[in-house]
Each structure stands twice: as C-alpha cells, then as structure tokens.
Design goal:
The chain is of the alpha+beta class and 354 residues long. 24% of the residues lie in helices and 29% in strands. It is globular. The protein binds 2-OXO-4-methylpentanoic acid (COI).
Length: 354
C-alpha cells in the first residue's frame, strides 16, 4: 500500500520494551509505546497522528460516556518465520467497523486512514510483535463520540484511535459455559451485530452471576424464547454435529465474526460440510446426550479457537469430549494458525505482509 496521508509522528523518548516481560502478557493490559489517533470535526477526519500511548484529555460531558456512542474492533498482527509482520484479514475488520459506525450514527472511517494508520503504527512498534507460539500483536481500533453536550443526539465530533497490545490467547483453558435463559445480549432490531460498547456493558451483570456459579463464559440465546443459541459475546460458537460444522447463522443479534468466517472457509475447502443456520438449545443438549455432538468451540480474534469443555443448562452440567481428542476443531485451529504465522500457503490471500 502506498502512503498517501500526512501522519504526524511523535515518538517516545524511551521505549518500554526493555521493562516489559514478554512471558507475562495477560490479554489487553500491556500496550506498546505508541498509538494512532484522528479526529472527526466539521464533517472530515483530521489531525492524523502517531504519538506516545497514554491518556487522552477529554471533557467529562462527552456523549460517548453518557449515551454510549462507541464502537471498536479487534484484529491481530503475526510474526512470520522471516521476521516480517503479517496483519490478518484487516479488510474484514475495516468493513465491520464501518457497519458498526453506520448503525450507531457515527461517521465511517476512510479505508486509507484505517489501513495506513495501522501499517504506520505497527511498523513503528514492530519490535512489540511477539514471536512465541500462539502470541500476536492485538490491534484495537476504537471510535467514540466527543461532543461535550448532554442533549441526546448523534455527536458531531469523534475520535478514532488504534491501540496495540502484545498478547497470547484470551482464554487459556477449555471453557465451562452456561446457556443463559434469563438475560439477553441482543434483540431483533437492536445493535447486536455491531461491535458497540453497550453490547458488552449489558453482558457484564449476567456474566458476573455466571462466574459466581463457576462458569467461564455465557452462551447467549435469543431474546424471544431462549430457544436458539446465538453467540458467546466474546466469540462466535461452532459445534461439530454428526461430523458437520454447525454454527448459528449471522443475524441482527449475532456478530459477523472474522474468525468464524475464516473457519467456515477453511472447513469448506477441506471438504467438511458446514451448516449456518439456527441452532436450538435442545439440539445441542440432545446432541451431547446422544453422542452426535462431538465438539464445540468458541471462535474469535481474541479467543482464537477455544474448546468448550462443559455446558451448563437449567442447573445441569453436560460434559463434552476430551478436547485433545477433537480431530475437526484441532485440525482447523492448526490450519488457521499455520496460515496466520506464515507456516502454510496463504491460499485465500488473507495475510497482509507489512
Ligand atoms: C475480539 O475477539 O477481538 C474481541 O473484540 C473480543 C473481545 C471483547 C475480547
């Protein structure tokens, strides 16, 4: 990609690299030296800059804080065997970011700002891209409303930022998940498909309750009858039923996950049948009981492929197969990793080598 934008660059005096322990990288806690920011004012994006990572001064009246106009994304950059860095499917995250923006009455971000900002930031902080197995540089694009105004209306001004954080997988073990039958994450006509802050905020209370019961994560169900499985909030859900990959179809209440899409394409290319459709709770529970459901996993950029080890439903716990024996999901996870880390041919052209 040719650099066509004027990005002001202010570098740190001293990098924090030497005081960062790369063997201790909990998700989203350690940030690189720099960040990229841009401002939307008077109908245009301006002030493109890379500056030291740190606090952003703002009014306590900004509308993002009061009315939730805030969206984000998550994508990863991977260290390749030759030392170069590859960003995985950034085009998909860019597209989804702008879909979220449109739904939340926010301005879209031009592709060149998103992509050139990303490339410039990662290149400046390239030493922060980890090289350990399963580690990557997680990129968090975020946009929020900045009008210091308490009237309820779409803001006229916004800030866009790219933050980068070296990390391992979000989850370290197979998950014990609870099928939620009281609270809901999203409803038809709402904003469930958008990656907007409020979707995550409303999930926190039910998640805290489930944690007290010993669960690691929730499986959200539809808001009408809690009859159909939707997603996990931090990731999409994929099951193996009768040897086929079965995943809840994307709808207004389900995020169109990039990892989900990637896995569907990899499985299809491998001759594995994939069904994208409504998946009922009944089918999942009966599948575990009669042995037709052999594998289940969460799929997401942060989560990567995380096995589900146990499912709780209406007070009863259902144990799934030993994750180490799961041929289909382990096979797909390996294929996916090999492409991302440059260890296999990138047949789909997903890697953007910087
Ligand atoms: C991601 O996978 O990038 C996400 O945004 C999930 C996050 C909420 C942990």
């Amino acid at each position: 990609m040719t650099d066509t934008l004027d990005i002001k660059i202010e570098k740190v005096d001293n990098t924090r690299l030497s005081v960062t322990d790369f063997s201790q990288l909990p998700f989203g806690k350690v940030f690189t030296d720099h960040m990229f920011t841009a401002d939307f004012e008077n109908g245009e994006w301006k002030n493109l800059q890379i500056l030291p990572y740190g606090p952003i001064p703002m009014s306590p009246a900004i509308s993002a804080l009061h009315y939730g106009q805030a969206i984000f994304e998550g994508l990863k950059a991977y260290r390749q065997p030759d030392g170069k860095i590859s960003v995985f499917r950034a085009d998909k995250n860019f597209e989804r970011f702008n879909k979220s923006a449109a739904r939340m009455s926010m301005p879209t971000i031009p592709e060149e700002i998103f992509m050139q900002g990303l490339a410039a930031l990662i290149s400046i902080d390239e030493k922060w891209v980890p090289s350990q197995d399963d580690y990557a540089l997680y990129v968090r694009p975020v946009m929020f409303a900045t009008d210091p105004y308490l009237g309820v209306k779409a803001s006229d001004t916004y800030k866009f930022a790219l933050l980068t954080t070296p990390t391992g997988p979000y989850y370290s073990n197979a998950l014990k998940v609870k099928i939620e039958t009281e609270f809901t994450r999203a409803d038809e006509g709402g904003v469930g498909f958008a990656k907007t802050a409020g979707n995550y905020a409303r999930s926190l209370y039910p998640f805290e309750q489930a944690k007290k019961e010993g669960f690691d994560q929730l499986i959200w169900t539809d808001s009408v009858n809690h009859e159909f499985i939707e997603e996990a909030g931090t990731a999409n859900l994929i099951f193996v039923i009768n040897g086929k990959l079965v995943t809840p179809s994307v709808r207004s209440t389900v995020l169109d996950g990039v990892t989900r899409d990637t896995i569907i394409k990899l499985a299809t290319a491998d001759g594995i049948e994939v069904e994208e459709r409504r998946v009922s709770v009944k089918e999942v529970i009966e599948g575990i009981e009669n042995g037709s459901l052999t594998e289940a996993f969460a799929a997401g950029t942060a989560a990567t492929v995380t096995h589900i080890g146990e499912i709780g439903y209406l007070g009863k716990n259902y144990k799934l197969t030993d994750p180490s024996t799961r041929k289909i999901s382990n096979g797909i996870a390996k294929k996916l990793n090999n492409i991302r880390y440059g260890l296999a041919t990138d047949e789909f052209g997903w890697n953007w080598i910087l």
